[in-house]
Amino acid sequence: MRHAGRVTENLDAVVLAGGAATRMGGADKPGLTVAGRTLLEHVVGAVRAHAPHADVVVVGPERDSPRARYVREDPPGAGPVPALRTGLALVRAERVALLAADLPHLAPSHLADLRAALRGGAAGEAHGAVFVDATGREQWLTGVWDTAALRAALDDYTGRSLHRLLGPLDPARVPLTGAPEEFDVDTPEALDRARAAWTPGDSGRS
């Protein structure tokens, strides 16, 4: 697929990395490390291992690493919906991964599972695919979406809730398997557990 003078893959990514991290005591959560890499580097690395030429848009403060396109919502810290709207404006691929910046266990195979679920939606009508945890709760910041459908939903939405924005798109729900039960890192205790559980090369991580 060619757009604006460049060749794009069928997948880009928007990574939300500008939250206040209140449960982490206000720390720079995307910059915290697990196994010698920042949480943000783990996420972007998984995307690039799955789709080497994907455009990765990080909505958050600019950093030297990882390599990505950095943008900020206006005002900074306005919340996930404004951040998504800002990042999605730069997406050109037909599919977009919407990801949190605190997923140290994210692997290329997880993104492959989500894309497969999106392609296999009922009668080809699924607009997205998201992971659900062991309780059946949707993980809205671990999903892959049809870019046009997501953009249209944002155009018609004035609220601040990702659930209310994304739920009506009726995404395929994908059980999260082959990963620790605690997939994201929200607290210092969760960070300690992620560091203790890390196995180099596990799950095909890059």
Describe this structure in words.
- This protein has helices spanning 39-50, 80-88, 108-119, 147-155, 162-166, 188-197, and strands at residues 2-3, 6-7, 11-16, 33-34, 37-38, 56-59, 69-71, 95-100, 128-132, 138-146, 172-175.
- By secondary structure, the chain is of the alpha/beta class.
- It has a seven-stranded mixed β-sheet with strand order 7-6-3-8-10-9-11, sandwiched between helices. Strands 1-2 form a two-stranded antiparallel ribbon.
- The longest helix is centred in the N-terminal third of the chain and has 12 residues, at 39-50.
Low-confidence stretches: 1-8, 201-206
Assembly status? single chain
Count of alpha and pi helical runs? 6
Please tell me the overall pLDDT.
86
Helix/sheet category: alpha/beta
The main β sheet shows up as: 7 strands, mixed
Radius of gyration: 16 Å
SSE ordering? EEEEEHEEHEHEEHHEH
Instruction: Strand order, main sheet: write it out.
Output: 7-6-3-8-10-9-11
Write a brief caption for the model:
Helix content is 28%, strand content 22%. It has helices at residues 39-50, 80-88, 108-119, 147-155, 162-166, 188-197; strands spanning 2-3, 6-7, 11-16, 33-34, 37-38, 56-59, 69-71, 95-100, 128-132, 138-146, 172-175. A hairpin with a 5-residue loop joins strand 9 and strand 10.
List keywords for this structure.
disordered C terminus, disordered N terminus, 206 residues, globular
SSE layout and pairings?
Elements: E1 2-3, E2 6-7, E3 11-16, E4 33-34, E5 37-38, H1 39-50, E6 56-59, E7 69-71, H2 80-88, E8 95-100, H3 108-119, E9 128-132, E10 138-146, H4 147-155, H5 162-166, E11 172-175, H6 188-197
Parallel strand pairs: 3-6, 3-8, 6-7, 9-11
Antiparallel strand pairs: 1-2, 4-5, 8-10, 9-10
Helix pairs in contact: 1-3
